[in-house]
């Protein structure tokens, strides 16, 4: 953790400070929001991987050629891991 610029007055304040020591603008709310976006992006990527995995599994079961290096089951698994990881990360940072 380091110093971040206050969104209001650009004064350097601790990223963990609840508000700017100079002007009182909320700081913690900003960092929590930014952190939340990171974990939401991770969950979004996980959901996309799960969707891709499902599409891959459906096309594989309908007889289309599936190569071993793009196994849809692995995509599903990776998507699930990313989604769970994003959820746990978001919970951990908000707790
Ligand atoms: Zn400020």
Question: What brief labels describe this structure?
Answer:
binds zinc ion; 95 residues; 6% strand; mainly alpha; two-stranded antiparallel sheet; 2 strands; rod-shaped
Structure description:
The chain is mainly alpha-helical. The chain has one domain (3-94). The chain is 60% helix and 6% strand. It has helices spanning 28-61, 72-94; strands at 3-5, 12-14. A hairpin with a 6-residue loop joins strand 1 and strand 2 (12-14). The protein binds zinc ion. Zinc ion (ZN) is lined by residues 6, 8-9, 11, 20, 22-23, 25.
**What percentage of residues falls in helices of 4 or more residues?**
55-70%
β-strand percent reads 5-15%
* Poorly predicted tracts of residues: none
For the largest beta-sheet, the strand count, sense and barrel status come to: 2 strands, antiparallel
Mean pLDDT, nearest integer? 84
Query: What would the principal axes of the Cα set say about the shape?
Result: rod-shaped
Kindly report the spatial arrangement of strands forming the biggest sheet: 1-2
| Total discrete domains | 1
Chemical compounds bound to the protein? zinc ion
Q: Give me the strand/helix succession.
A: EEHH
The count of helical stretches stands at 2
- Number of DSSP strand runs: 2
Gap between N and C termini? 17 Å
Rg result: 20 Å
What structural class do you assign from the helix and strand content? mainly alpha
């Amino acid at each position: 953790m380091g110093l971040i610029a206050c969104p209001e007055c650009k004064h350097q304040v601790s990223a963990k400070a609840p508000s700017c020591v100079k002007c009182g603008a909320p700081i913690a709310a900003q960092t929590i929001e930014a952190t939340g976006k990171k974990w939401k992006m991770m969950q979004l990527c996980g959901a996309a991987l799960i969707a891709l995995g499902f599409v891959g599994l459906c096309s594989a079961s309908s007889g289309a050629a599936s190569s071993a290096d793009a196994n849809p089951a692995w995509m599903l698994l990776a998507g699930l891991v990313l989604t769970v990881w994003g959820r746990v990360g978001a919970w951990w940072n908000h707790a």
